[in-house]
Design a protein that fits this description.
About 45% of the residues lie in helices and about 10% in strands. It has about 270 residues and is of the alpha/beta class. The chain folds into two domains: about 20-165, serine acetyltransferase, domain 1, CATH 1.10.3130.10; about 175-270, 3 Solenoid (UDP N-Acetylglucosamine Acyltransferase, domain 1).
Length: about 270
């Protein structure tokens, strides 16, 4: 074989006549609806975020006509997603006020980052470049669809952010205002986690479950973090009954499986 394309393809099997080809063709055909759903969900997320934050657009075009076209795209994509997952449609008069509400929540998140990070110089910098903000933005729009009963779509959206930022937030988690993830790589927030307002997490924090038993799928498996808690890098907090009290500080690398009262300071003890 001389390495040319002609010689390579000339030695290939005629797959059209191979008996196993029928099975692979069937696999592809069966997966086509899921592939369409993934593409549509990711397009919905891109369009919604570009509508709420035009600075995230791939093209710098914010004429009135373009904005109205985006609104129409969001409406049509939402309707298409509803049909694909057989969910009740969301009327425009409900959808767009909710998106404005979510934008206001995200602006509070961005303000918390600006106030809490000495390296941050502007809200614009945060929206354009902070992975924590991007991950939370995806989470908040996915959480909205999760609450509307959409299946698969919210997970596809948060996994898109996970892929881009390294931050894994389940859309079912409950997260309050002014949420700040600093740096962010390796953060994991489980499905039934509850996070209050004014909470700050550093990279590598895990809010996870103590048990992976399938029988616990419908129960609260992940911890509750009350208001104004600060959790430093690589801390692990596990269990549905674990509550981190308001105003507590959790040191880096701490391992916590029991509740701590408000105002606590917990640090890693290697002994």
């Amino acid at each position: 074989m001389d390495g040319t394309l002609e010689s390579y393809f000339g030695n290939m099997t005629d797959f059209s006549s191979a008996p196993y080809s029928v099975e692979f063709i069937k696999i592809a055909q069966d997966s086509h609806p899921l592939l369409s759903l993934k593409q549509l969900a990711e397009e919905w997320a891109r369009t919604v975020l570009a509508t709420m934050f035009p600075e995230l657009c791939e093209k710098a075009d914010c004429e009135d006509r373009v904005v109205l076209e985006r609104l129409e795209s969001v409406s049509q994509l939402t309707e298409s997603l509803s049909k694909l997952v057989q969910c009740n449609p969301i009327p425009d008069e409900t959808l767009f006020p909710e998106l404005l509400r979510i934008r206001n929540l995200l602006l509070l998140d961005a303000r918390a980052i600006l106030d809490g990070d000495p390296a941050a110089t502007s809200l614009e910098e945060i929206v354009l470049s902070y992975p924590g903000f991007l991950a939370v933005a995806h989470y908040r729009i996915a959480h909205y669809l999760h609450g509307k009963g959409f299946s698969l779509v919210p997970r596809i959206i948060t996994e898109r952010a996970h892929r881009e930022t390294g931050i894994d937030i389940h859309p079912g988690a409950e997260i309050g205002e002014r949420f700040f993830i600093d740096h962010g790589t390796g953060v994991v927030i489980g499905e039934t986690a509850v996070i209050g307002s004014g909470v700050k997490l550093y990279q590598g924090v895990t809010l996870g479950a103590l048990s992976i038993s399938k029988e616990m799928a419908k129960s609260k498996r992940h911890p509750t973090i009350e208001d104004n808690v600060l959790i430093y890098a690589n801390a692990t907090i596990l269990g549905g009954n674990t509550v981190i009290g308001r105003g507590s500080i959790i040191g880096g690398n701490a391992w916590i499986i029991e509740s701590v009262p408000p105002g606590s300071f917990v640090k890693y003890n290697p002994k």
